[in-house]
Write a structure and sequence with these properties.
The chain contains 28 helices and 8 strands. It is mainly α. It has 6 domains: 99 residues, no CATH class; 100 residues, no CATH class; 42 residues, no CATH class; 168 residues, no CATH class; 85 residues, no CATH class; 103 residues, no CATH class. Helix 1 crosses helix 5, helix 9 packs antiparallel against helix 19 and helix 21 packs parallel to helix 24.
């Protein structure tokens, strides 16, 4: 699926990864680190004689090209990359470079920096399979590789997949019953409409975005004091997704809601994005210029990663080694934010440094001065930075002397000229549905990032988002209604052999529930979920050992115990500690933008799910729920359990095994006297349950909640 020696060599697909990984550190965009006056990332420069008077690349003549001579040299003093770099080229890579030069050494502009153009739909052989435009791009690539898509997913699997994918929750018992009975296109469209207009959808997709913008309810660092403003931003995210706020407005409000719509409380809540990052206010210790530098650095890095998909932070200490981003670009972006300053408010009188704080960005009387810093050191200024946008991108360059710089940045991010924002955004939506983006390096669309698996599809989706008025719900429907999304997770053997990572999507990628989805699902199936939305963060009780990193143990548990059963998106997010269950299931850090969560499978996860006191409580509640609704009938209980937990009908063998298990475990429990902590909850006194039977039902529920079918979505 990559170019082989002998086929036409493409610069972006075949050559750029080799040069970027092995050559650009010394012969790329960073002028200060460039060796021998040789630059290989720009064709005009690569065709000029270097410091040695040898010409690196002579188009059509690899034998006369010094690049070929050096990569094929056996002399350790001449060979490139040099031995001390610990990099080396394979024989195939050397031959690709030779062939590329022989074919004329054609360069291409970096794909992510080119204008978004809407591609035509590709021609496919199987014209019956596509449901919408997305499928043509997926199928064309599969057919090119002589592969076929998987069959359509079962209605039960599709229902569970879309319920978790859109709302982050398992389908309700009513949905399972209704969709099993009728699951045509009209019923599926109605299901999508209901899910995509729900508050639960807003909550789930807000949690995705919170990863991206390094959300936390506390400042981090040593004091890690609580924020009282962060939850307002979180609630703004929930409202924005649930109401289908246009995504250009969604971006504008975060960057400059206070400047573009002064007095609009919703827009100014969006601008709290500016002050939810790590923050230090240490009286008598921290200098104001250090605080400003840390804040501007956080904003430049997060804005570059989240909205542009670029590693702009790599240009903080020097020009970017791989992408055409200069230090001037980086500090120009910082200078855009310097027309504002941080204002901290504490309710307590007199305030203490550990008291909760409300922090907002407010206009300065005069814009602050940002310096280009040597090696990023605040005490080593080189020159004043002019506020500006990255020069390499259309519309980039210095900003005029205007009052509202952030408003200019916000408008530019979603302008027709900007080639990145829409591409980056649709790639994230794709990733949040399929587990991986069309570009797997979601925060790096630069040269070191991975090229898109389906570049034409990426551009089609980006152009469709823009032409729809940045309508996210429209994009969601396209993806969710596609035949690509509706495939079974069981891939054809030929596809598994040819494409083990499933980059071509001949089948839906199986994924494990994320930490919050898993906890919320446990609450939902047990009937304990508190569906209340919005409000201040909930602080749950935790084991004392988990609070060890927290200074002064400032962990005031929410008094109303019903709040502990709310969705995980409303739980407090501290920078100094993670809730143990979330930590076990790969909750990311919240110091910088998270492009995508790590997915690990380790023993501690099984132990957390099996032995956690919370999981036992859910199993006890579930056992009580099933006992009450089945009136103690095991066959009815099994049917109910499979619908609640797996969103499907139980099979006769499964029902039989449940009965055998329960009888065996009840016989064992009769020999002992199970404590109250091992028995179901929610059973009134007039419907008693024998203790041995109750303990067996709890064990059964605990086993079901630990099954792969519950923890994974197909």
């Amino acid at each position: 699926m990559t170019s082989r020696v002998g086929a036409e060599v493409r610069f972006n697909r075949d050559v750029l990864p080799i040069l970027s990984d092995n050559c650009f550190a010394c012969h790329g965009p960073d002028a200060k680190q460039r060796k021998a006056k040789l630059r290989l990332d720009v064709r005009e420069e690569a065709l000029k004689p270097a410091e040695s008077d040898d010409t690196p690349i002579v188009p059509g003549k690899p034998a006369q090209s010094e690049l070929v001579t050096r990569i094929e040299s056996a002399d350790s003093d001449d060979v490139m990359p040099p031995p001390k770099s610990h990099k080396h080229l394979t024989a195939a890579q050397k031959e690709l470079l030779r062939q590329w030069i022989a074919e004329g050494a054609k360069y291409e502009g970096h794909w992510a920096f080119t204008a978004i153009e809407r591609p035509a739909l590709p021609v496919v052989k199987d014209k019956a399979w596509p449901r919408n435009a997305i499928d043509y791009f997926i199928l064309e690539r599969l057919e090119r590789e002589n592969l076929a898509p998987a069959r359509e997913a079962s209605p039960e699997a599709l229902l569970r997949r879309v319920s978790f994918g859109v709302a982050g929750l398992p389908p309700s018992l009513e949905d399972v019953t209704a969709f099993s009975a009728r699951h045509g296109d009209a019923e599926y469209a109605a299901l999508l409409e209901r899910l995509l207009t729900s508050t639960q959808y807003g909550e789930h997709w807000a949690r995705h975005w919170m990863d991206l913008v390094r959300y936390a309810d506390s400042a981090g660092y040593e004091l890690d004091y609580l924020f009282t403003h962060a939850s307002r931003y979180r609630d703004w995210l929930v409202r924005s997704f649930a109401s289908n706020k246009p995504m250009d407005r969604f971006i504008h409000e975060q960057i400059a809601g206070d400047e573009l719509w002064p007095g609009n409380h919703d827009a100014t809540d969006g601008a709290l994005f500016l002050t939810i990052g790590p923050m230090r206010f240490e009286g008598g210790i921290q200098r104001a210029k250090d605080r400003d530098n840390e804040w501007f650095t956080d904003l430049a890095d997060t804005t570059g990663a989240a909205f542009l998909g670029l590693t702009v932070g790599c240009a903080r200490c020097h020009d970017h080694k791989f992408d055409p981003l200069t230090q001037g670009d980086y500090y120009g972006l910082q200078a855009i934010f310097a027309d504002s300053e941080v204002k901290l408010e504490r309710a307590a009188k007199p305030p203490k440094e550990t008291d909760p704080a409300f922090i907002r960005a407010v206009p300065r009387a005069q814009p602050g001065i940002v310096q280009v810093l040597r090696r990023g050191e605040v005490d080593l200024p080189l020159r004043e930075a002019a506020a500006g946008l990255p020069v390499v991108l259309p519309g980039g360059g210095s900003l005029p002397a205007i009052k509202n710089r952030r408003a200019a940045l916000a408008t530019w991010l979603t302008s027709a000229k900007n080639p990145l924002t829409a591409r980056v955004l649709v790639n994230r939506v794709w990733q949040w549905h399929f587990g991986r983006g069309l570009v797997r390096t979601a925060n790096d669309f630069g040269r070191q990032g991975e090229a898109p698996s389906h570049p034409e599809l990426l551009d089609w989706l980006a152009s469709e988002l823009i032409s729809s008025g940045w309508d996210l719900r429209h994009l969601q429907r396209l993806i969710l209604e596609s035949a690509t999304y509706r495939q079974s997770g069981i891939r054809p053997p030929e596809a598994r052999a040819a494409d083990p990572e499933n980059r071509l999507l001949a089948g839906f990628p199986r994924r494990r529930l994320q930490a919050e989805e898993l906890r919320d699902a446990l609450l939902a199936v047990s009937g304990a979920l508190n569906s209340k939305s919005y409000g201040p963060p909930v602080v749950p009780p935790v084991e004392p050992w988990a609070l060890a990193p927290l200074r002064n143990r400032n962990w005031e548990v929410t008094k109303d115990e019903s709040e502990w059963r709310r969705r995980s998106v409303y739980f407090v997010v501290r920078r100094s500690i993670k809730l143990p269950f979330f930590d076990a299931f790969n909750l990311p850090d919240n110091v910088s933008s998270c492009a995508g969560r790590d997915i690990t499978v380790v023993a501690s996860q099984a132990l957390a799910l099996l032995n956690s006191g919370d999981t036992l409580l859910h199993a006890r509640a579930l056992a009580g729920r099933m006992w009450m609704q089945s009136q103690g009938d095991v066959s009815k209980a099994a049917a109910l359990a499979w619908q609640l937990i797996f969103a499907r009908q139980v099979t006769p063998p499964e029902s039989d095994r449940a009965l055998v298990f329960l009888q065996a475990r009840e016989a064992e429990w009769v020999k002992s006297n199970p404590s109250g902590a091992a028995l179901p909850t929610g059973i009134p006194g007039d419907l008693p349950m024998p203790p041995a039977r109750g303990a067996a039902w709890v064990e059964w529920c605990l086993a079901l909640l630990n099954s792969n079918e519950f923890v994974y979505v197909d």
